[in-house]
Amino acid sequence: MFGRKRSLTFILLTVALATLFSVSTHRSHADSENWFAPVTPGVTKAAELPANTSPLVSNFDCDQRAINTTTYCSASTSIGTVLNDNYLLSGNNPVSLYGYSGHGSVIPVPNSPMFFSPQPGAVTGQYVAVHRSLARSDTKLVLVGSGFSLRKQYQVTKPFDFWLTDDNGTKLQINTATLAFSSNGYWAVFDVPRVGLFRLNTTTMQLVPFGQSAEQSWFLGTYGLPITISDDGQYAAMATSSGGLMIYDLGGCSQTGYTAGQTLHFSGCQSRDMWAGQFASTSTTEDMGLKSVITNGQVLGNLRFVNDGNLRFDARYDYVSNSNYKVARYVVTASGAELHNLGLLGMGDSYISGEGEFDYVDGTDDLDTNMCHLSKLAYPYLLGASYTDSYESVACSGAQSIDITGGKNGNDYKGQVFDQLRQSDRSNISALLSNFSPGYVYQSTFTQQYQPEAILLSIGGNDIGFSDIITNCIISTENNGTCYATYEDRFELFQLINSSFQELVATYQSIKDNSPDSRIYVVGYPQIVKPDGDCGLNVHLNQEETEFAAELIKRLDAVVEDAAANAGVYYVDTQHAFDGHRLCESSGDSSAVNGVTAGRDAIPSYYLRLLGKETYHPTVLGHQLLETAIADQTNGLTKPMPAADPTILQPVLDPSDPLLLAAPASNREQYYVEPDNIITNIVQQGSTADVSVSGLSHETIANSAYDAVLHSDPIDLGAVYSDDNGDIHSTITIPATVPVGYHTLHLYGKNIAGDNIDIQKVVYITDGEQTGYCGFISDTGIDIDQDGIDDACDGVIGAAPVKSNDSSEDQTTNGNQSTDTFEPTPTINLATTNSLQVTATATQINNSPRAVIATLKPSKTDDTTGEVLGVAVTPSKQNTSSFKYWLALILAPVGLLFLLARRRYNT
Known about the structure:
This protein is α+β, with helices and mostly antiparallel strands.
């Protein structure tokens, strides 16, 4: 599948036809799985795990998190990060967590605010109390014990909503060590000792028995067996104490409901021991079990349905003794299902979406709905066309880790689009997945659906507020206009970068769990500026800031690389991909990066021009350079995944770091910086603005004051207050005297761990007037490339136009400079997936640039070789009246046909 396509003509034809017919390049998701066909299911070793060490196992979805050298199983929930063994994470410290009135534990339901709380039962199991929903305000931090035994402890303060009962209201005694949930939280499965296995609908609480209890004797109901259930509730699987691996089809089970003492029947429920190859319906054993594939093996745990057709688990194999065995993660695929339904998927943020190429997919450049800015000129599409036969991208500009995984409750995820619908409320999920529509559902939804062979991921920059960091540098007025110029500023920023480590690890692990056999390539961020270079008017960074920007990207990449190594995914180093083409060392078509751009996407252009999202993002050339770097390092997307190394921990910032010591100390108090979208982007002078903060996200203290301060010249805006949940919903007033321009709003206070925190957001204060073409940046009156855009905010500044032989009378004025009329230079753009375009540098008329004047598409191809034999030319509807443009229109196709004929002759 990953063979290089060598023919240039074939690539051109493929690109043009793909755009012309809008043909989807992926295979449809298989829906014909059959776990009970009399064949051995497909078995794939997805990853090798550390030998002679049992993996950390759990029956509920969680991520491994290393805290103070101890590895926990952690899950993000509506009350915070819950750890195994009944802990709640407070800051970076595990604190004991107890149920209501200090009794029992709490077990989170994935993607839901629901919690189950086991309580002491009789001999055969535990009773289970249920909270329909818990919020942070439903827990409190208390001190228990005395003296040296004094310790913190969280307790749930909200009473239970109901007990888990049979249809007659009798409380069930279940083995909570066999309690498991589907990844979407809609289904639960568990064993009622000496009674049977049950499926529970967590919405209706309806019970369906489907199999014999794993515990038939008078046991204590505390043994743990790996068990799982699929997201649609149709399939369940369980590893048995005798070494088997049972799978159940619940789709035909005839009995619903249960009353204590009732005799259960399982008619219509199918079951099979996949390990032995045994079918319950025939009671025959065939040599079709997993034991014939996984030699000397045993299922250890982490049993999960990836989807209805794929089941994963961790198992040991080649067992010799308890101290001599190997461990691996396997994926079992049902007959009729596919392990992979896509060759390549791009995921992540603006550096992979194609932000900055300005040629965006329809529906991803709409101010009112979706600004994902996905481009088919971005490197996932370039690599996909070269190395696989099915590829897509769901990357979205502005994405953070939560947009990959769905965060604490994926069902409540509202996407990056503007309709604010919860994912669980979207009625068109199937269409969104089929059309690979970015921004509406969290991106891992696509990995679970399609199980790509390879995944390209770029994430992390927005988690540290990279856009705000760069904006601070562009508009900095303190310290002689140099951003992050003090020891404290840099310490806080580097500490913020290091703190992104755990979130990145959890993100990578979540993708691995959703698509366990995918090759995951985490792409680092390239250097965008030459520190000691000659910067153009569109860069707006002084020499010290260019050096600092380079160090910032270097440190971010180091954390991304460490997190990738911890999680066991492949890191792709692109630090030097743009060398020779960075800002301050190149210009025009040779530049791999846009400078500062006044884009219409910041806010509606009729109101005010602000910093465009394309600022400091790769150009078309940049993505071509990234394609080359990634292809080289991954051997054409075939490099295998490295083994996870959990010994690699979050970097610790050294206070004596030379880059810190190089900056003078201001001796101010230091904070943990936490970027967030706490206020609208633009606020009018003298007006009020709403401030909104999630207490759960920032672990703010309930019913406490937080100081609102506007910088750079500190302006105290008064206090805002948190509610019972620690959430802040307040209003601040912006004084009419605040200067127009960018400022940073800070909320200073403490979190529940007692740390100083600074929740901040860059905001633009406006008087409602347009101050110039570049908005908050002063116009220079210079337009070297004569494209009608002031160079202060021209993303790519080309060369000055070549003067024509016309008389100097044909000149226009642009700002303080005269603009010469010049001859158009026809060029053929072969690097576009939308079409082949003839472009010409344009004469300025009313400061409006002319560019695309014709579109070329193949009109005739050789049926055998696929070579282009004829080209259809469609003139543009605009700016075609000039004789010079018609001349370019005639000459360009001739040049293209000559190129193709020459290519054909040479081959």
